[in-house]
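Lab notebook, bench 4. Still working through the backlog of constructs that have no structural model yet. Next entry is a single chain of 317 residues. Request: give me the C-alpha cells for it.
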Amino acid sequence: MVERIQAQLDFDASRRHAFWNELLAVLRGRERTLLSFNEVMNVAKLEGQVDRGMQDIPLSQIRGSEGRARDFDATFLPLNPRLRERWSRVEALMLQGRELPPIEVYRVGDVYFVRDGHHRVSVARRLGQETIRANVIEVRTRVPLGSEVNAHELLRSAEYASFLEMTQLDRLCPEARLECMHLGHYDVVYEHILGHRYLLSHDRGHEVPMPEAVVSWYTTVYRPVMEVVRKHRIAEHFPEWTEGDLYLAVTRRWLELSYEDESAGPEGAGVSLLHEAEERQPSAARLTMLRRWLRKRIRRTLVLGTVLTPRRRRRSS
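Model written out:
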C-alpha cells in the first residue's frame, strides 16, 4: 500500500517535470519527443534484422519508441495522464523488489527503440537505474545512424538515402563511405556524377549507363581527390568535416582556380585549400592573444582604480 501511494506521487512529480521540460523546449525551440521507429526506418531504410538475445542495455541510449513516441518525452517522463494507473503499478512492483520481465527493443546503430516495456523504462529512469534487461533485435539499415539522432540528422539521413537510391553507390562500390555533414551537399555530389556521366558519354559517342558512370566517377574523380586530402592531411585542419565535405571543398577550390585560368587539378586545389587554412590559424591565434591582453588590461585598470581612488580622496582632503 505504501509503495502504491509513493508510486502515484512519483508519477505526478514526473508529469510536472515533463510539463516544465516541454515548456522550456518550446521556449528554446528544441524537440523533446521520442524518436519514432517507423519514421526512422522510412528514412534509414531497413536492410535486415538479427536477434541478439538478452542483454543489459544503458537506459540513456534508449531514445525512441515503436508506436508510443507521443506518450513519453525524450527522457521517458510520462506525458499522458492516462498512463498513471499502469505506471504506478509498475513502480510499486519495483519498489517491492519484484522481478519484472525484460523489455523488448530494437537497436539501430547506437540507439535503442522500445517495442514493449515503455512503463518499465520510464519507472527505471525515475528510480535512478542505469541499465535494464532487454531482449535486443539489431536492425541493419542502409543509411548509418549515429548516437545523436535529431531532426537535422534525420533530414541528412533522408538525403543520403535518396542519394544512394539514385546512384546505388553503396552497392556498386561497397568500400565507399561518402557522408556529408551539411544539408544539400548530397545534391551537389549527385550533380558532379551527372556531369561526369555527360562528359563520358560525349567522349565515347554514346550514352553511358548510370551505374558505369557512378563507378567511373568514384574511381577517377572521388578517390584521387581523397588521396590528395590524405596526402596533405587536410582533414586535420577541418576536424568537423566528413569525407564528403572535404571532397566538395577541394573540388570547389579546383573550380575556382580553373575560373582564374589556373590548371591546378586536385593537387593544386588541395594545396591552395591547405594554405588558406594555415593562414587562417595564425590570425585566430593572434585574435586570442589580443583578447587575453585586453582582459588583463581591463582587470589591471579596475584593480588600480580601486586601489588609487582612496589615496586621491585623502590628498584632496
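Notes after review: The two ends are 78 Å apart (CA to CA). The domain at 2-141 is CATH 3.90.1530.10 (Conserved hypothetical protein from pyrococcus furiosus pfu- 392566-001, ParB domain). Flag for follow-up if needed.
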